[in-house]
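Team,

Forwarding the record for the chain on the shared tracking sheet. I've put the sequence and predicted structure together so nobody has to dig through attachments.
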Amino acid sequence: MQSNPISFSAGPTHLGPRTEKALHEIISSGFLSISHRSPQFSEVSKKAIDGLRRQLKIPNDYHIFYQNSSTVAWDTVLQNVVAKHAFHFVCGEFSKRFFQTAEALNLNAMCHETASGMAVELEKAKIPKETELIAITHNETRAGLMWPFEVIKRLREENPQALLAIDVCSSFGGMKMDWTLADIWLGSVQKCLTMPAGLGYLICSPRALEKAQHLKKKLPAWRRFDVLAEKMKVYQIYETPNTLNIALLAKLMEEWDLEAIEKETRRKAKLLYTAKMDWEPHVKDPHWQSITSTHFMVDNAEKWHKKAEKANFILGRSFDDFANNGIRICNFPSHTYEMLEALLAALS
């Protein structure tokens, strides 16, 4: 009997054996029938939050909130901390959607757009002084582009008046973050955290909470930062939470070794970028090449997909202008070095 194919698409990620084992343990434990207002739930939720702080080195004064997804988190952030003016760096599909969310909320949203796969030139971005929030997507999965932290640091230093929000959906959990570089970090769990989809998160600095309190925008209770903060004092949320994924997060964080994971992520990325294959990275500047979601240009994408499928692998597909000559290979912690070696052998 053929085993399930190993997927290298951008998400949900391939679930590794540790995640599958933890899921079975949770399902058989009876936890999923426990009230999400009970002390038992709060205890497990606390383990998840404490685990994130401990293993990912999140500062104690930064608030961690659950969200339904990173898409919901875009809306939550914009609704709470922007009265009028938001500025977005658009480098691909997901940063563009973040910007479009701001437009849909009738904010005075501006953007600096960079062609797919091209490094961002900060000096060409004209950020107005009245900007309240600058938003970037750290890792653009469709483009294979990842912002270097030194560039983010320069962006921060040159625009101290604005809050900085970073979407880290496809890098959070796979590499270390310098939390002091931004006021708001957001994403969801189905990529580098090696979990099924259905749970997002917000990580907010005291400065972000203060801005929300100052604006006092009229929002539904479940969306407001102050309500989120109050509920999280007992590790709960206003609405019904994703109890399965919260319990899974708690279990995975027990042994999450971020230093070892980042080292292995970089080793696997080097394997992909230096492989003797008939492809070229979509992002030419090595400083901007993603280590968690690589994108390669090929002669005939469908041919590469068929090769992979024959060996029981699934490649990520490219879209729009790159649908016919682009492939994507994600490099999340659940993808082992041996899996990638086997994939490259199948594609050779």
